Amino acid sequence: MDKFETLTGIAAPMPLVNIDTDMIIPKQFLKTIKRSGLGVHAFDEMRYDDQGNEIADFVLNKPQYRETEILVAGDNFGCGSSREHAPWALKDFGIRAIISTSFADIFYNNCFKNGLLPIVLPQEAVDVLMKDAEKGQNARMTVDLEAQTVTSSDGEVFPFEIDSFKKHCLLNGLDDIGLTMEKAAAIDTFETGAAQARPWV
Amino acid sequence: MSPKTLYDKIWDAHVVHEDADGTCLLYIDRHLVHEVTSPQAFEGLRMAGRKVRAPEKTIAVPDHNVPTTEGRDDPDQMPEDSRIQVAALDRNAKDFGIHYYPVSDVRQGIVHIVGPEQGWTLPGMTVVCGDSHTATHGAFGALAHGIGTSEVEHVLATQTLIQKKSKNMKVEITGQLAPGVTAKDITLSVIGETGTAGGTGYVIEYCGEAIRSLSMEGRMTVCNMAIEGGARAGLIAPDEKTFDYVMGRPHAPKGAQWEAALAWWKTLFSDEDAHWDKVVTIRGEDIAPVVTWGTSPEDVLPITAEVPAPEAFQGGKAEAARRALDYMGLQPGTRLSEIEIDTVFIGSCTNGRIEDLRAAAEILKGKKIKDGLRAMVVPGSGLVRAQAEEEGLADIFKAAGFEWRLAGCSMCLAMNPDQLAPGERCAATSNRNFEGRQGRGGRTHLMSPAMAAAAAVTGRLTDVRELM
Fold first, then answer.
1. Is B154 helix (H, G, I), strand (E, B) or coil?
2. Long-range contacts of A25-29 (CB under 8 A, 24+ apart)
3. Which residue, A194, B14, B375, B421, could crosslink B344 as a Cys pair with Cβ 3.0–4.6 Å?
């Protein structure tokens, strides 16, 4: 997995609340058996019209936001389906961090498996960063995972909370399965005990 | 010993390892797999030279992509990309030696209907699937939740998940439901009360007299939509109804093991003075038959209400409501019961079980659907379909003008050919009314099976109590 340490990049404002995973990547693109190549379909129905032409109004189609690496989004980003195609599509588009007041649980977890950093901040902080993102490509924010801060283009610093284990894995690009495999003996022991306690499972 | 919630008890029984910061390795008893969220996980195993650790605890069934029309055993019925996904599941199930129900098997159906039906889902278990509606299995007092594809691969390889414990939330529905009010109305009303992010960070336990009074089918409907309320999982403590449902199912324990299992299952309830981080109480008598008007499941109102004005909402929700009304083609102040529909969809893991079909058929008996309407019933599994045919329900649906389909997810998420056209308005028993969910530009109103049947008869959103 890709490491995430610090990132300075263009942030795009997406103030809509409840941006769901059907919006991030509609179902017709879930028929792939690969993880790659979904960036071109990210936000498909908001981004393209029925003929497949770009909708000029959509934020990521605007010239100043085409190189966006950070999204500043409304409440409850990533709600809905468990599809990991959502973080795959965002990552493939070039997004590395998402800032919101809240994220849906499964989407939040999926981000960390893909080197994407979801950042939860209070409403007041998101409001300031949303305004900052509206300034376009000259407003480059900085995310520092080690320091757990987001710095606006004006130099205002917002600290954020993050689970220590998730932070450790992201900073070091660690593969969860490899880490768990190191605990194989503990899994063996659990299985032996469970087979006696609950043999019907 | 300190008092525990049901969630605490199931959690504690499955912790393999706990780190100092509270990060746990949780053992997974059942892993359900479908064709859409698993190919990349199996590919990951192959690339790393890993095996499935517990193939006997892993169950696969294709449901999202499969056509629901006759003759679907013929792969040519499917578009190429769908065919490749289903073929990949066929091959992965065979190569890794996991239980499998192909489309040709009468037991095939929506994964969350097949699991309980076959007795794979049992009280006190941990159950996961690469699908957010895994919450359904919580109806059995199993800790069940959706995971992403990376976690699917993690469970395949290790039979565990890395997890931190959620908080405990109690949702109590007191008293009794009024006639015409169903499990779907309960679960939508709870989301209306708490919002789609109200459950974020929590596992919900549903309790109270109105929940106890529900059948297992109804309880599955309630837990199914815990995810729409943002919760990691929904739970209902097992009781005699649960045990009666489970007993005798193909993969349920038998003989002495049944007795041992039952003894443990009877300990699975929240202790009286257990700690709750959040409590929501709703009077069963206050719940009305409801429908959604917008593009989020929290956009729900009693059928007797009117389309709300965006100005009635605070903050970012006002803009979201404006966008939703525009998408839905609705004007504030319109009575919900005056909204005309084009299509009716009865099915999905929320409402594709036998009781749902009975409830809809009860309304449709001796009636016809409104002229020009398209209406379909998609049973949740081949066995539900067979039972409905045996009970004469299929004849009622067909006589009323419904299409009688084969089992699958179908128009709930429209990955197969069952889709809405742009602007087409649908009364649906599924779980999500998101933009484009049932087809690009499609407009979804969520409701109970009885309400969907009533809408089919009148051609508009309808208070089912008028037809009872």
1. helix
2. A25/A83, A25/A85, A25/A86, A25/A88, A25/A89, A26/B436, A26/B440, A27/B413, A27/B414, A27/B415, A28/B415, A29/A85, A29/A89
3. B375
Assembly ipTM: 0.95
pLDDT tens track for B44-82: 999 999 999 999 999 999 999 999 999 898 888 888 999
- Residues B361-371 have a mean pLDDT of 98
- pTM equals 0.97
Domain membership of residue A1 (yes or no) is no
Q: Which DSSP letter does residue B466 get?
A: G
The structural domain count of chain A equals 1
Q: Residue A158 is inside which H or E element, if any?
A: strand A157-159
Q: 50-89 in A: which are within 8 Å (CB) of B?
A: 50, 74-76, 79-84, 87
Q: What is the pLDDT of residues B399-453, one digit of tens each?
A: 999 999 999 999 999 999 999 999 999 999 999 999 999 999 999 999 999 999 9
**In whole angstroms, what is the distance from residue B291 CA to residue B301 CA?**
6
Beta strands in B157-230 (DSSP E): 160-163, 167-174, 202-207
DSSP B126: E
**Torsion, Cα of B301, B303, B308, B314 (10° steps):** -10
Domain containing A18 equals 6-197
| Residue whose pair of structure tokens reads 């990991």 in the numeric block | A84
Q: Please answer whether residues A48 and B326 qualify as being in contact, where contact means their C-beta atoms are separated by less than 8 angstroms.
A: no
Select from A103, A114, A190 the Cβ nearest to the Cβ of B16. A190
Q: CB-based contacts of A162: which residues, under 8 Å, 6+ apart?
A: A119, A145, A148
Angle at A155 between CA A153 and CA A158, to 5 degrees: 100
* Residues of chain B numbered 207-236 and touching chain A (CB < 8 Å): 227, 230-232
Q: Are B173 and B113 in contact (CB under 8 A)?
A: no
Rg (C-alpha) for chain B, rounded Å, is 21
Number of H helices, E strands in chain A: 8, 7
Optimal mutation site among B12, B16, B411, interface A, most CBs of chain A within 10 A: B16
d(CA A117, CA A87): 10
Distance CA B11, CA B166 (A): 10
Q: Is residue A185 part of a domain?
A: yes
Q: Rounded to whole angstroms, how far apart are CA atoms A37 and A85?
A: 10
CATH number of the domain where residue A74 is located: 3.20.19.10
